Structure formats: C-alpha cells, structure tokens
Amino acid sequence: MNFARLVEAVYLGWIGTEALAALGFAFPITITLFAFAGGIGTGASSVIARSVGSGDGERAAMLVTHAQLLVLVVGSVIGLLGFFYAETVISALGATGQVREMAVDYLTVYMLGFPLFMLSMVGSTLLRATGRAASPGIVMTTGSVLQMAFGPVLIFGWFGFPALGIAGAAWAYVLSRVFSVAIYLALLVRARMIRRSVKGFWQSFGAIVHVGGPATASGLIQPVSMLIITRLLAAHGHEVVAGYNVAMRVETMVHMVLWGASSSIGPFVGQNWGAGQFQRARQALSLSNRFCLAWGLVTFIVLFLGGDYFVRLIDDNETVGAVARMFFLIVPLSIGFMGVMQVASTCFNALGRPAPPLIIALLRTFVMYVPIAILANWVWGYPGIFVATALTNVVMGTVAWEWNRRAVRTGSSLSMQERARV
Description:
The chain is mainly alpha-helical. The protein has one domain. The chain is 88% helix and 0% strand. The longest helix has 40 residues.
C-alpha cells in the first residue's frame, strides 16, 4: 500500500510540482479518514480477538457481521460530507490557485470511494483478529498492484482512455478498492464469519464503540495536528508542502514495517490474553518494542544515505529536494519511538482499555507537538517543525512504553489472581 502511494507521487511528479503540492494538501484529510476506519477496526478487532481466544466463535462471527454494517453506514455518511465540503477544507488549509483546484479534484473522487476504502481497511483488520494473518496482506497487495497499473492509464490517458490528471490517481485508488472489498467479503463468507442476521446489533455496537469510540478520537487527534502543520508549511510556499509530502511518502516505505508490528501485536495480545497466556503477551510486547527502536535506526541510515535519490526520482525541484533532505536529517531517527507509541496504543486497545491511547494522543498533540511546532516554526522556519516532530516522538514514545509496561504487568497479575479464585 505504501509503495503504491509512493508510485502515485511519482506519477503526479511527472505532471509537476503543483500536483505534488495538491497531494500534500489532500494528505492530512485522507489521514483523517483513516482515523474513522482505524477506530472501528480497532474496536471490533479488540472484542473479536478476545472472543476467538476464549473459544466463542459464534459471537466473533456476529461481531464481524455487525462491524461491516456499521462501517458501511459510517463510511457513506463521511464520504458524502467530504464530497460536498472538500473545497472549503482545502481552502482553509491555505491552498490557492491551480493547486487548490487540483486538490479538490483529487478529494472529490476519493470521497466517493471512501465507503469502499473503509470496508477494505476494516475487513483486513477483522481477518487478522480471527487469526487469518496472510489473507489481508495478499489481497491488499494485489489491490495496490492494480492501483499502480490503473494510475498511468487514467492519469495520462493511455490506451484511448481520457487523461484525467490528478483525478485519475484518485479513480485508480477507488477502482482498486472495489477489488479489495469483493475479495474480503468472499474471504469472510468462506471463513463462515458472516451471519444473515442483525440480531444483537446494538449489543455488538456497544462493545465495538467501547473501544472504537475512544480509538477513533485518538486517531483523529493526529490528523488535527497534521492539518495544523500543513497550514504552517503552506505559509512557506507550495513547494515546501510538496517537499514535505514527498518526504513523508518516501519515509512511509520504511515506516510500514513498524505499522506491521503494531497492527499484528493487537490480535496477538488480545487472543493470548483471552486464553490466559499473559507471559506470552508480555514477551511479545518486549520483543516488539526492541524491534521498533532497532528499525528506527535502520530507517535513519537508509533515508540519510538514499532518501535524496528517491526524492529526485519524483521531483527535481530544488526547494522540494531541500525540504526533503532536511526532513530526512531530523525526523527518521525518532521513528522507532513513534513505533513504540503505536505498539502501546494497540496493546491498550486490544485489552479493552481505550482511555490510555486517547490520553497519550491528547498529550502528544496539544501539550507537546503543536505548541512546540508553532514556536519552532516562528524561530527557525519549517526545519523547526521537523525538530518538534522528532522531539515529540522521543518523549511520548518513552512515556507510552513505560505506561504500557506497568499496565500489562499489573493487569496480568490481577487476571491471574481472578482465575485462581475461579
């Protein structure tokens, strides 16, 4: 998926820096949409994983069915709102002229396909929660390959198709999600995880929202900070926004390994917790945290040495390159701590404790990141924003690690005592 996003940026880089800047303005909005899909997926995954771990397969199947219905309703409402208000939001972020028009063209198409995107994302989470870890990766990879194949055809008008420009990139994404949704539904039916009944929907809704509501709120906090950061960067020019967007897309190629670790630790901890395997859950968390820090060092080395090369493949604009080089010099060394924070949040949600991730997200964004970024931007310009990002990652990653470690140790001791009494 991340490689497909990077290739999308390459395609749009051939159109020009304006298209990359437009993608940069659209990016925080698309990340905001991720929060809704991630929140519902997290809430459903938490309950489903613990149901599977305790041996209650029928309840897990009902939860899967009801989660899909909930996603369809929420995704349709958000997609319609985004379609009608895309131009208003893009203008508020500081985009002007051709860049604003291109960003709106991209977002209006993206919003039409959002219900499909949300279904595919949550579907992959539900499959992992039921213990089927390979299928989501295969389907999503195939969908991303299709996105890369559709991209140039629709963007540049190959094989007789009309050249749609940046809107073609959005259409390529939407069409690829049609495939993903169809396959996910087929896999869930084949696994006998779909029921033809809405009985108990509100009970399932309550269980999902108990974790998914705060998880959605936590997920929305980060996009809020990105919206603010994009507005700060816009004051330095559209080329700076383009450079930041390109650097972020290159960085996600190495960061995706940490996302993989944090997304898989949730069902792993949830199932082992439900089965009473507390020591195994603690060992997995320790291993994941150490891996995140090690991979953060690898990320820094790779991007410091080779990041500029990949940026020039996308856009050779000198300002874009300068912004990306500054980003790679400051931010990647802290990425391991961001991974630790993601692992801690996923673990808390898996255990049915959504409050700590929400508190961590609030502290990260409104106590540290945004205030420091505003001050640092005023003092040093856009490089100060990157310094604020790195500092926030290190501090909050450390806080999240220690909080999660103590909570898991205390929770496992209490659970063992409760089981002994039973």
